[in-house]
Design a protein that fits this description.
The chain is of the alpha/beta class and about 425 residues long. It contains 16 helices and 20 strands. The strands form 6 sheets. It has a 6-stranded parallel beta sheet with strand order 3-19-15-16-17-18, sandwiched between helices. The protein has a 6-stranded mixed beta sheet with strand order 6-5-4-9-12-13, with helices on both faces. A two-stranded antiparallel sheet has the order 1-2. Helix 1 runs parallel beside helix 3. The radius of gyration is 21 Å and the shape is globular.
């Protein structure tokens, strides 16, 4: 069987004998056909809001409107979503003072070119756009999260008469799903608030997993933050592998988000197919630009690789490791168990930057060896306790050597961020 995987803006392929393949885990999302354009889907969602009056009604009499939009690290088709949202707001109030607030969370800022690429020339040049900075933007404390952390968010959102958001819903490896409430926390929150929400205790919680919202302490914090910030309306889409919207929901941030999550679950839950070697990716560009983000795609493999097996992870990683703290946490201590013990000893308000990602990464490394196929420097890959490789063939040879068999079983996950792999051991994940 010839298996093809996304890698940056290209693909990589390998042939593996059929008798060795346990399964190819793909989301039904990629084969889901819809007879409407992306624009029509968004318009339809806006015309039929869930649990909320239409956006144009909400905008009546509202002077200061803030529209939270996703940043360059998210493949949200903002060009499709933002224009009709702006139109609806102006339909309700032609004089509305609208600011697009870009939810970077703790990511780097966006360049003008990236803003143009994401929103199109017209919006980039005509609309008022502010990029959130978790360290330097003016902030306001709006209360204490259920977790006990301070909830501090961007002042613009707090001072808005109407706060709305766009985004997309995908499986998320510790928040259950992306989208909805995540526009506020971590989207426009201060670093201190993000750190409290991403504490080691919550990351270790059994409900902090892909596809789980119930009893998920991270999700609970996020919902509280969005509700307290008065997030009034969302438009979220679900996208296929071409990053095109195939479904849209609009309305109340909880009700619309839940409807979107249910639709997504119906398409992308797959049963684990335990194997000695599991090949996964981060879905190609834009999600595989660094090693930090690639941990997400590894969690899909973690759910189906046999203990002591090998994960082959493909992620172009042309931006390198993607997180200085993440890199140092892994590179400075050869014993990953010591690092994990240190994280678990920290209280909620003592969380350090990127600790959550490192904690999940260590959990993966405790289960399997990771061979990393990328453009990142070999020494960086080694510093992160992985084995570098530059082709699938080279990675497969190394994997077979580690498991001690040229007939080792293989499971393929062409897009590790698009599937929710359900472990068959106890069904808890």
């Amino acid at each position: 069987m010839k298996l093809t995987f996304p890698y940056g803006r290209e693909t990589r392929s390998i042939e593996i004998p059929d008798n060795r393949i346990k399964g190819v885990l793909v989301s039904k999302l990629h084969h889901y056909k819809v007879d409407k354009t992306q624009e029509e889907l968004v318009e339809e969602a806006l015309a039929n809001p869930i649990g909320s009056p239409p956006l144009c009604e909400l905008a009546k009499g509202k002077k200061k409107v803030v529209l939270i939009a996703s940043d360059h690290t998210r493949p949200v088709p903002s060009k499709v979503i933002v224009p009709p949202m702006l139109r609806e707001i102006r339909k309700g109030n032609p004089d509305a003072d609208i600011t697009i607030l870009i939810a970077t969370g703790c990511h780097r800022s966006m360049s003008h070119e990236e803003i143009v690429s994401k929103f199109g020339e017209e919006i980039a040049n005509r609309e008022k756009i502010v990029v959130h900075d978790c360290d330097n933007s003016p902030m306001v404390k709006i209360g204490i999260l259920p977790s006990g952390g301070e909830c501090i968010i961007n002042r613009m959102a707090v001072e808005a008469d109407l706060l709305v958001a766009e985004g997309f819903i995908e499986p998320h490896f510790f928040a259950g799903f992306s989208g909805g409430r995540k526009s506020v926390l971590p989207g426009i929150a201060s670093r201190i608030t993000v750190l409290a929400n991403h504490c080691s205790e919550f990351i270790a919680h059994p409900a902090s997993r892909t596809g789980i919202l119930e009893d998920n302490p991270i999700h609970k914090d996020m919902v509280w933050a969005a509700r307290t910030a008065k997030l009034a309306f969302i438009v979220n889409v679900i996208i296929n592998e071409k990053k095109e919207a195939i479904h849209a929901v609009a309305g109340d941030f909880e009700a619309a988000h839940m409807a979107g999550c249910e639709f997504l679950s119906s398409l992308c839950k797959v049963d684990a197919k335990p194997a000695d070697i599991v090949i996964s990716t981060n879905g190609g560009y834009p999600l595989d630009q660094n090693i930090y983000q690639a941990v997400k795609g590894m969690t899909a493999a973690e759910a189906t690789v046999k203990k002591g097996g090998v994960i082959i992870m493909l992620a172009k990683s042309n931006d390198g490791h993607g997180g200085e703290s993440f890199y140092r946490q892994m590179a400075d201590e050869p014993d990953i168990n010591k690092t994990l013990d240190l994280f678990l000893s920290r209280k909620r308000n003592e969380t350090e930057a990127d600790q959550w990602q490192t904690q999940i990464f260590i959990r993966i490394l405790q289960k399997a060896k990771v061979i990393y196929v990328s453009d990142a420097p070999d020494d960086v890959v080694r510093d992160l306790h992985m084995i570098p490789a530059h082709s699938l063939e080279e990675a497969m040879e190394k994997a077979e050597a580690i498991v001690g068999s040229k007939e080792a079983s293989v499971t393929a996950i062409p897009d590790g961020v698009a599937v929710m792999v359900i472990e068959d051991t106890n069904g808890s994940h």
